[in-house]
Automatic annotation (TrEMBL):
Keywords: Amino-acid biosynthesis, Aminotransferase, Histidine biosynthesis, Pyridoxal phosphate, Transferase
InterPro entries (alphabetical): Aminotrans_II_pyridoxalP_BS, Aminotransferase_I/II_large, HisP_aminotrans, PyrdxlP-dep_Trfase, PyrdxlP-dep_Trfase_major, PyrdxlP-dep_Trfase_small
Top-rank taxon, per record: Archaea
The family this protein is said to belong to: Belongs to the class-II pyridoxal-phosphate-dependent aminotransferase family. Histidinol-phosphate aminotransferase subfamily.
Catalytic activity: L-histidinol phosphate + 2-oxoglutarate = 3-(imidazol-4-yl)-2-oxopropyl phosphate + L-glutamate
Pathway membership: Amino-acid biosynthesis; L-histidine biosynthesis; L-histidine from 5-phospho-alpha-D-ribose 1-diphosphate: step 7/9
Residue ranges of coiled coil: none
Protein name: Histidinol-phosphate aminotransferase
Chain positions found as N6-(pyridoxal phosphate)lysine: K231
Broad EC category: transferase
Molecular function (Gene Ontology), one example: histidinol-phosphate transaminase activity
Enzyme Commission number: 2.6.1.9
Domain Aminotransferase class I/classII large: 43-368
Length: 374
């Protein structure tokens, strides 16, 4: 029998898959260096909200020690990590599920649990784009609802968008890229007035003065909190996330997540990082101090509008420049920042800058003050 062309198999693809939008990631330093003929070691990388302090030393040692066990399977449900997270979060192990790659894997698992062909999820925009991408991969429709002009949540607009097909409302607090938080009273309203799962992405919660919304899980059976090791814990490359959720959701998540979803190395690194309160506190207090300074400096020394932020990043409206022009200006000075063009409902003049070390933030101010047509 002759081999067939790929067209003969293309009809096997599910219809929903052809509609999955692309996720636009922040590029790595070596990708950008190769594109522009630069030395990757000289670039200051503030485009992906990674931890500028590097990984905790304790986690690096733990990875080295665990390497000798790389031929073995880990526990199927990452039990050591769940225990460590129980201590960190104050919730019992029954309320915690951990998985890789990243929190993204738990977003996928939740969509897999709750969203089918023809179902809807609600995504207030601008926000992290992966919620809608992940929902559409399982046949769901992402219903986008605009945030208010100051980027606060428009709870009434969200409630208006709810239908009997709405399965999950995806919220992010502090929100990426806008930096603001959602109030507990807004969450209560959504949890009580809908039959949907209310997901709150707390990837940046450690940096926030407002604190976590996780205590709501003790009151409501439809709230899920998403967390990650990629930001405050400095382990983005290990690709590890977790959720705090009602026990009924955790037990169902464990049924649809692949077994052994946390690698031996990721688990060792994360357990070490969770117990390394010194690293965590040092990074968090640096971000809080530097964020305040950076916002004040941009307000005083540039004509641009900068928004308040509870995350390890800020957004700046660089009008009349476009965000692309500003990204290029910064790149010429060896600094990588992120254009917000790939986020919906934020216009074409906004950039997102990760809060760096004091030295990095001095370089940011220099770049603002010396770029053309300020
Ligand atoms: C960085 C980030 C995550 C974390 O993703 P990982 O897959 O765990 O690296 C999740 N949500 C938001 C809003 C983020 O910015």
């Amino acid at each position: 029998m002759a081999r067939k062309s790929k067209e003969a198999y293309a009809s096997l693809l599910k219809d929903s898959v052809s509609n999955v939008p692309e996720y636009v990631p922040g590029k790595t330093a070596s990708q950008i260096a190769a594109e522009y003929g630069l030395d990757p070691g000289s670039l200051i990388k503030l485009n992906a909200n990674e931890n500028p302090l590097g990984p905790p030393d304790s986690a690096v040692s733990a990875i080295q020690n665990a390497a000798k066990d790389a031929s073995l399977y880990p526990t199927a449900d990452a039990s050591n990590l769940r225990k460590a997270l129980s201590g960190y979060t104050g919730f019992p192990v029954e309320n915690i599920a951990a998985s890789g790659p990243g929190m993204d894997s738990l977003i996928d698992a939740l969509n897999k649990l709750f969203v089918g062909e023809g179902d809807e999820v609600i995504v207030p925009v601008p926000t992290f784009t992966y919620y809608g991408i992940s929902a559409s991969a399982v046949g769901g429709t992402s219903v986008d609802v605009d945030l208010n002009e100051d980027y606060s949540l428009n709870t009434d607009a969200v409630l208006k968008a709810v239908t009997d097909r709405t399965k999950i409302i995806w919220l992010c607090s502090p929100n990426n890229p806008t930096g603001n938080v959602v109030s507990a009273s807004d969450i209560r309203k959504l949890a009580e007035e809908t039959n949907a799962i209310i997901f709150i992405d707390e990837a940046y919660v450690e940096f926030s003065e407002a604190g976590s919304l996780s205590s709501l899980i003790r009151e409501y059976d439809n709230i899920v909190i998403g967390r990650t090791f990629s930001k405050a814990f400095g382990l983005a490359g290990m690709r590890l996330g977790y959720v705090i959720a009602p026990a009924w959701i955790v037990s169902n998540l464990l049924r649809v997540l692949p077994p052994f979803a946390v690698s031996i190395l990721a688990e060792a690194a994360a357990v070490a990082a969770v117990n390394d309160i010194k690293y965590l506190n040092a990074g968090v207090s640096m971000v809080r101090t530097e964020r305040k300074k950076l916002i004040e400096n941009i307000r005083e020394r540039t004509p641009y509008k900068v928004y308040p932020s509870e995350g390890n990043f800020i957004i700046v409206d660089v009008s009349p420049k476009t965000s692309k022009e500003a990204v290029d200006d910064f790149l010429k000075k060896g600094i990588l920042i992120r254009s917000c063009d790939s986020f919906q409902n934020i216009g074409r003049n906004t950039v997102r800058i990760t809060v760096g070390t004091p030295e990095m933030n001095e370089k940011i101010m220099e770049a603002f003050e010396t770029s053309e047509n300020q």
